[in-house]
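Sequence in, structure out. Go.
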Amino acid sequence: MLTFIVRRGLWTVLVMFAITVLVFVIFFKTPGIDPVRQIAGRNPSPLVLAEIRHQFGLDRPFPVQYALMMKKLFITRDLVSYSNQGTLVIPEIFAAAPATLSLVFGAAIIWVVVAIAMGVGAAVLRGTVLDPLLMILALIGISMPVFWLGQVANLITQSRFHDTFLFSWVPPLGYTSLTQNPVRWFEGLVIPWIVLSVLYIGLYARVLRANLIEVQNEDFIRTARAKGLTERRVLLRHTLRNSMITFVSLFGLDFGVLVGGGALLTEVVFGIHGVGFLTYQSLTNLDLPVIMATVVYGAFFIVLANTLVDITYAWLDPRVRLA
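Output:
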């Protein structure tokens, strides 16, 4: 198992290096993209353009430019925004990260717990009226876009019924730090947690139900029953564990994407100034250093999540370690 972990760790480093090179080429070496003109403003003189290129090291050879950019991004962390001169990009991302992490972690707990309950319930109650009812609810959740569901939630909790006892506790849109006020932090994130988790609850419940039904027909499940094990023990120790492999794979990918900025729509709808919201603002301003840094930040979490998924996968299924 240790050899497998080390091998996956080395692959992670290699993939991250390749991603940084690719991102740098896309944002700074694609024909037609000139960050210098964006910094210089309208109608700059050739002398001004040359001075800016020299100041930011954009007149150096490609390997040197890449090395300087990665040094500013990972070592000195003094990468400066092009649109807002004087603003350091890395501290801005770190300041936005707690809001995104709070949003995604809370939503992940909700969707994992509820999806497992719904998937197991639907598989156990297969053939009864509750099975199709649970799957219909899951399909409805998958069909509702996050931005639409978020706007409906805001309409109900912030406007129509905000003065009633049901939603009078809901604070205004925005994010309150956990260290600043834990109660307000929780109250402000409950509705975004639910909205973000609805889609994944439906998807994961349907995937888990299908895997449970498929695994129930395997030979080792029949062998476990023949040994006299109770249905509860067979379900929890054998059927559910082997059915969770696809579940864990999906969770790792989705969690990494959301932490890396995939929760953009939820953050914008609820006014949460996280990494997704920062990415949205930098895209509107075409601020290349911020966009590049947020993309690398997102790629880091996605690759890390994939590595953790592979390790978890190997723990669930030892045959994977030989691959």
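Check: The chain is about 75% helix and 0% strand. Residues 89-124 form the longest helix (36 residues).
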